[in-house]
Amino acid sequence: MTGYALHHVTAISGPAQRNLDFYTGTLGLRMVKKTVNFDDPGTFHFYFGNKNAEPGSILTFFPWENAAAGRLGVGETQETVLRVPEASIGFWTHRLLAKGVTHEAPAKRFGETVIAFRDPDGMRLALAGIPGIEAEEGWETAEVPAEHAVRGLHGVTLLLEDAAATAAILTDVFGFEQGATEGPTTRYQVAGARLGSVVDLRAVGGFPRGRQGAGSVHHIAFRAPDDAAEFALREQLLSQHGIRTTDQRDRDYFRSLYFREPGGVLFEIATDIPGFTVDEPFESLGQSLKLPRQYEAQRREIEAVLPKLDA
Ligand code: ZN
Q1: 101 located within any domain
Q2: Which site from 26, 186, 211, 218 is most exposed, i.e. has the minimal number of CB atoms within 10 Å?
Q3: What is the CATH number of the domain that holds 47?
Q4: Number of domains in the chain
Q5: Which domain holds residue 268?
Q6: pLDDT tens-digit profile of 202-240?
Q7: Which residues share a beta bridge with 262?
């Protein structure tokens, strides 16, 4: 059975410039798309990714200049994990320290070396050192050499009251396989997927629900290669799990369905097509503000209300 690994993770942040500086500067990710929130065009939507802007490498943010801080609770994504070559863990340990980023000492999880850290909004992130990925192309910046670059998403950890119903969606619908358990956390993984292959379920009964805000993950998206695969997943969710998704929404770079999984986390299914080069060339991805067709006529008004950015 083919599995459906992660396509992207979308989170809420505070001020746009600070968010941009952290992800492209400190973490050295590629700015893949600079657009607006399609449901609220007066705010940005930033997409960061790896050199090739691949599905499975994408971390997106809705920056709100005055967002109140979120509070983590059950029914949410607790941590988002990015993958770097195993030999780059030393580089990143030094870099997070030099940049004054709040982080923990490297630790072993499921056999991988992981550094947990926070972004400027308190979002929980980690870098996982993965063996054998040195040859994957890296995005080079002034401060992060290509060899140490983040190569995309590794996975997420979901914080849940109870993991069973969520695990059933992952295994029955998205083709994840159950892996090892460490403490309250069980690993689910798509065999053979290079990017975004891991969803860890952390079951903590009795923990309060959270409050979404700056630093919170809004939703996680799973990849479907095309519309037919996406609609097949939709049918399977309904027939086997009694879960209804939204209608398909056109996000310009992918087409999406959304549903709330039984543990409370907002899940999306996003197509790999048409991808981020649909409205600008690969070489200049993310450099200019792209607006969806329905807002192009209002470009001047939208640009006037968006926060000003240095880069
Ligand atoms: Zn999304």
Answers
A1: yes
A2: 211
A3: 3.10.180.10
A4: 1
A5: 6-305
A6: 999 888 999 999 999 999 999 999 999 999 999 999 999
A7: none
